[in-house]
Amino acid sequence: MSYFFRNDNRLPQARLAVASYVIVGMVGVLLLGFWKLQVIDSDKYSQWAERNRVRSIPIIAPRGRMLDRDGRVLVDNRPSFSVLLLRDDPALVEKNLPAISDGLNIPMEDLRDQLSSTRALPKFQPIVIKPEATQADIDYIESHRADIPVLEMLSVSRRRYLPGGFMSHASGYVGEVSEQQIEASNGKLRPGDFGGKTGLERQYNDILMGTDGMRRVIVNSVGKEVDRLPSQEAVPGKEIRLTIDYDLQQVAEQSLGAREGAVVALDPRTGEVLAMVSRPAPDPNDFAVRVSKEEWKRLNDDEQKPLLNRVIQAQLAPGSVFKIVMATAMYETHAVPENMTVFCPGYGTFYGRQFKCWVYWSHKPAHATVDVHRAVNQSCDIFFYTLGMKMGIDIIAKYASGMGLGHKTGIDLPSEEAGLMPSEEWVQRVFHRRWYPGETVSVAVGQGAVTTTPLQLARLIGGIASGGKFMQPHMLKDAQSVSEETFPLKESTVEKITDDMYGVVNAGGTGAGLKLQGIEFSGKSGTAQVIGYAARDRVAKQKKFLDNAWFVGYAPKRDPEIVVSVLVQESGKHGGEASGPVVRDIIKAYYDKKAKKTQGQYTVEYKRYDLGNGSAPAAAIQPQPVLKPEGPPETAPVRASVPQH
Fold first, then answer.
1. SS3 state of residue 223
2. Distance CA 290, CA 177 (A)
3. pLDDT, position 540
4. I want to staple 585 with a disulfide (CB 3.0 to 4.6 A). Which of 255, 347, 635, 642 is the partner?
5. Beta strands per DSSP E along 537-617
6. Could you say which residues of the chain have pLDDT below 50?
7. CATH of domain 251-273+310-609
8. Which H or E run contains 160?
9. CATH of domain 55-241
10. What is Dmax (Cα atoms) for the chain?
11. Beta bridge partners of 158
């Protein structure tokens, strides 16, 4: 009896001991946890607490403006707002996604795609879910701040381009940066940032972009702003002054119109690009926000290729403009006597195959007996077929390549194409066969495998007329590094070839209807077949097989100040008729402006640039010198009909 009594007395004491140990252990764990919170992880939890109290909103730096050579604004900015999603609390974000989708009219699928693509970013870094907020979006966010605290407004400056695709391909456009651009930026760019995608926007993105700032505010438990902390101001991007002349650019745009083609005007003395047009062209304002997948697909699938900058990327046969290379090589090498004459009945047989002159297809009188000067003036194919056969591809390739054909010009624009100047070495390397002499006949008139860009032809003709000095084309005014290439030409060669090109316009040549009073306007026309005439007849002369029309003109006759290259694709007309008037319009506008400047009829005024919504950004309110003619601007001259090659 006493045994059981003694055991019952010990049992509560054992239990109390166990309970004591448990209590001591729990207190130890709590003390360890407090020590970890207060000592080991104090910095981390302080940062978390600070984030709950302090919200950091980026301040996007406005991009620098683009000005023309006289200081007039070509590309500016306009104020706008984007919608930010704060992702500090993933559960809160997930809870509010349906309301955000309905309130901001963003498909739920798009929201989830954006969240998925930015999953690797730190949670405290907000993301842009709607680049361009409407007034309704702004009202919705302001009225729902208490119940949807994960939304915030971000003030941004959107690009504003001149309407109608003005200078579209040269200026380029901005868009959301790609993964490749982010990786190449060394941390400067983040997902959702906007940067230059094409043209000058991409070429000089680092200059135009600026440095973003940060706005820090204190918020309460429902996300409402209650105070502000010191902010880091954004540093705006630097503006750049271009070589473009707005007046000449406007004439070029209007003169080419809606026709598919390209225009480029250069100062061959410096390489400065005075005007650049490529048609068709998208409106870069459409890319200033986020272009839809459907619109992007439509632009890429368009047969007219509106995203192609034809000035630097259209690699096409130069047609009869190439005859200037042939004549120059003839004068330089004397491989063929300069007094050589050829009888042109409208056709000729070379290497067992009959080739036609352009007059045959145009049902015009044959050229009869021609020398090199008349062959250039009248663009006689039979003469140059013969010259090519006698000269050979090696000499032709040496002079064409030496003067820049088949090589990039080095212009300060991305994605320039090189074209192609065929040679024996090229055909062996690419096709592993020998060069056939019959191929030289086609190359001699700018057909066959030879392809160039409008910019290459402008540089070529300007360089030849300048005595063999070929400047690197560029669009940044006062560029620090502009290269000069020389291909020495004899003075007698320059005199003869410039006389030949002067005769094209002023001595009854293929550009006779383009003559300008008091201006030594010279040039060369060209008409390049897209498909052979015989094949075209078999397909009922479909429009897509119409010839490409070229004209490259310059003034004055020697040491020119301006050279203009114009391509009109599938015009169905000869170069002097379709492209020549565009060249004439631009050269006339150049000399008209030069005369008025000399006479003091151009005055400097200051202009405020309105963004169309009644306000102007601070950058646009600065005084800007603008050249303005006294009186109304001149209308473009009436084009003459020139039914010639």
1. coil
2. 11
3. 45
4. 255
5. 548-555, 562-568, 602-606
6. 1-5, 48, 533-540, 603-644
7. 3.40.710.10
8. strand 151-161
9. 3.90.1310.10
10. 149
11. 78
